Amino acid sequence: MSATPGSIRWLLGHELRLAWYGAAASGAGKEGKGGKPGRRRPGMLGIALGVAGYAALHLVAFALLRKLDEGAVPDTLLAMPLAILLAVCATFMLSSALKACVVALFERGDLDLLLSSPLPSRSIFAVRLLGIATTTALPYWFLAGPFANMGAAFGHPGWLGLYVAVGACAMLMACAGMLLTLALVRLLGARRTRVVAQVVGAIAGALIFLLSQAFNLTRHDGDVMPMLQALLSGSRWFGPDSVLWLPGRVILGAPGPLLGALLLAALAFALTVGRTHRFFVHGLQQAAGSARVRMRPAGAPRFRFRASLFDTVVIKEWRLIARDPHLIAQVLLQLVYLVPLFVLILRGDAAGPALAAGLTLLCSSLTGSLGWIVLSAEDAPDLLLSAPVPRRTLQLAKLAAAAMPPLLLVALPLLWLTVRAPVTGLLVAFTVTAAVLSAGLIVLWVGRPGLRSDFKARGKENFLCNMLELASSLCWGGLGWLLVALATQGDAWLWQASAGTLAAGLGILLLARLLRRRPM
Amino acid sequence: MTGDIPALRLTGLSKSFGRPAVNGLDLVVRRGELYALLGPNGAGKTTTLRMVTGLLAPDAGHVEVLGVDLARDPAGAKRGMAYLPDDPLLYGKLKPTEYLEFVAGLWGIRAHDAEPRARHLLDWLDLTKHAHELTEGFSRGMKQKLALAGALIHEPELLILDEPLTGLDAAAARQVKDLLLSHVERGGTVILTTHILEVAERLAQRIGIIRQGRLIAEGTLAELRERTRGGSLEDVFLHLTEGSAG
Judging by beta carbons within 10 Å of its beta carbon (0-12, 13-18, 19+), is residue A346 exposed, middle or buried? Predict the structure, then answer.
């Protein structure tokens, strides 16, 4: 039965249809420079893969839950890890909701049309919020749903409460995301809100890595588990009957908490729609003017003309990167992988070879990213081509702009390492420098022009360059590991392995040179 | 004898993208004139300009800019000209002052020469009050004017513009037209393409019409009218390009 045009159900259908197309576009990549359009909706292959993945998840759930069922863990204990898991998921849901709110406010082109129609703005806002909540919940329903289904099959029908728990949590996070976005619009203005939300959304993903490393980075001297057990059993707040574990009981289908979660989500939705739909419209009006910047009081323009072309190009590249917080956040996410390395260095129990490989891989990866930005994603290539300057000087300056930040970043740890272990420090300095140069040259030779906004999709756009960069990083990282191991252990096989890895690294560079794109 | 050397000489210029875009084009633009290159969509105007400015390598033929062979001495040929495409060559995350610093650096202009020129251009184009803003927030007209300032900072003798008035409001269009006329009055040469025939009619000293990559007519407006016995430039243009792709 089709919904009445203009009704909330009809609008929700429109919203979900756009989300469905959006999923296809993100899978197929955006329209590129060549004008090749992204796919309009997921193809049969995508749907088939989704169905196969969903079936496979049921098998995984079956295997895991069968063991759990044999152990017969009481629901009161099971609710604890489930509540913690839901809390972790809630942070990711908030990140997704925040990004979805930014899209709804700043990037979707259909709101002007909707708001100029006779539909009440309250309905439009309500449906948009419902759409955000639904698209936020969908991945979690997809991934966790099979566990609820298999739980029900094993005789725990209450576990279907997981669907309600995820839905309620997604609704609460969608409301929080919308309120936060609108508050940021009021406090910072539309332009800055967009940047802040993009940065927060990008950084949230890195939390998974840090959480996964948290256990490795803590000293394991046998005190942690007993301390945790004492905390959970002794405290009123963390005991099995604590209200903190209520979300876990919702997942397990306890009727009271289930009803409570539903009411809480409905209340949050009603209050958000009722109280803020006018400000939502106001936020949209601000977004419409977000391209305009506030004028500063006019003063005499100040110039700093530089004598050297090299300096001029390097400064220009750094300025362009420094003024793009979203791009910086995406590039610096790679630094998150440095955190465990730095912790190991500072604790003084780092294994030298691992440290050499880690620093080399990181610098190579950072140079590849920055190299893509300055070399491939040049905003005005025609300006450079029409200028009376040698192409080689421009390329050299751009390579330097990409290579200097990673080298500066590791300069201090390398210096510290060289003071403590001179041979190791010098060997790491060699592999880091080689990796940085190789990464930059590979981008220079086989990189394809792209748009800065497509930074995340650069790997898909140029598979060859991506693979060469990856192989080069692995070679130089491996060489770092082998050379430091050779210096400290001196095993004979390390000589041969080092020579082979060095040859492979140089071979990849040679291959990139042979495959280089012909300049115009 | 620079007076005898044309600002631009194209000899047998050809470029093909599967089918010929520019087909043996011969063209001479004299120094100190404003030359309008007209033609229907897909006639090869932009391809010609991109070859002249060194952005595209020709399949055949020669380009000589101010007496310098572009193929033999690209830097020497580019030094005396500036190119302004219809989509301005700007960086959204740079301020106008920084953009002009960068362009001056590309053309190797010394600071003591570049600074007064940059101030004058920003003033002249009403951009001084926006000198501290990022260009990403600029309107189309402001972007076009800033790109013009960038094109003029090295005081090129030959100014090449592709559809310079597209999307500009009346005031900005007037400013750009005044600037072009002033450049010619000071001895410079301007080559422009435009779809706005009134602009060519009012500004250009000579007009060239190309179709399917070939020059099919050239001369002053009066000469073109006489040749086709037409009325306005629009009549002449439609008469000459009749039957071409629209």
Answer: exposed
CB atoms within 10 A of CB A179: 17
- Tell me how far apart the alpha carbons of residues A359 and A473 are, in angstroms, rounded to a whole number: 11
Question: Do B76 and A291 count as a contact with CB atoms less than 8 A apart?
Answer: no
Largest CA distance in chain B: 54
As a whole number of angstroms, the distance between CA B54 and CA A519 comes to: 12
Q: Do A386 and B53 touch (CB under 8 A)?
A: yes
Contact call for residues B172 and B150 (beta carbons, < 8 A): no
Q: Which band of pLDDT confidence, cut at 50, 70 and 90, is reported for residue A411?
A: very high
Rounded (5°) CA angle B182-B188-B191: 95
Q: Return all residues near A347 (Cβ < 8 A) that are at least 6 apart.
A: none
Query: What average pLDDT does the segment A409-426 reach?
Result: 89
Chain B partners of A298 at a C-beta cutoff of 8 Å? 128-129, 131
State how far Cα B67 lies from the chain centre: 18
Instruction: Determine the Cα angle at A238 with ends A236 and A239, to 5°.
Output: 65
Say whether pLDDT at A254 is over 70. yes
From CA B73, how far away is CA B69, in angstroms rounded? 6
Contacts of B130 in chain A (CB under 8 A): 295
| pTM (global) more than 0.90 | no
- The complex scores an ipTM of 0.85
Quote the CA–CA distance of B183 and A123 in Å, as a whole number. 58
Read off the pLDDT of residues A69-90 as tens digits, 9 standing for 90 and up: 666 667 777 788 888 888 888 8
Tokens of A403: 């290579």
Single-letter amino acid code for the residue at A211: L
Q: Kindly state the helix (H) or strand (E) to which residue B217 belongs, with its residue range.
A: strand B214-219
Q: pLDDT tens for residues B117-130?
A: 999 999 988 899 99
For residue B5, how far is the Cα from the chain centroid? Answer: 19
Q: Are strands B68-69 and B60-65 parallel, antiparallel or unpaired?
A: antiparallel
Query: Exposure of A227 by Cβ count < 10 A (0-12 exposed, 13-18 middle, 19+ buried)?
Result: exposed
- Which has the higher per-residue pLDDT, A192 or A87? A87
The whole-angstrom separation of Cα A356 and Cα A479 is 9
Judge contact between A265 and A172, C-beta under 8 A.
yes
Yes or no, beta carbons of B56 and A298 under 8 Å apart: no
CB B188 within 8 A of CB B161: no
Residue listed under structure tokens 């060239």: B208
Calculate mean pLDDT across residues A282-295.
Answer: 56
Rounded Cα distance, A412 and A340, in Å: 16
Owner of token pair 């698209």? A135
Name the one residue in this structure whose structure tokens are 């440290």: A355
- With CA atoms as reference, report the closest residue to B169 among B196, B142, B150: B142
What pLDDT does A36 receive?
41
Please, are residues A199 and A329 in contact by the beta-carbon 8 Å criterion? yes
Contact at CB, A312 and B92, closer than 8 angstroms: no
A294-338 pLDDT, tens digit per residue, is 555 556 778 888 878 999 999 999 999 988 877 887 777 766 666
Full strand arrangement of the beta sheet holding B19-29: B19-29, B8-17, B60-65, B68-69
- Flag residues of chain B having pLDDT under 70: 1-3, 230, 243-246
What's the burial of B230, exposed, middle or buried (CB within 10 Å: 0-12/13-18/19+)?
Answer: middle
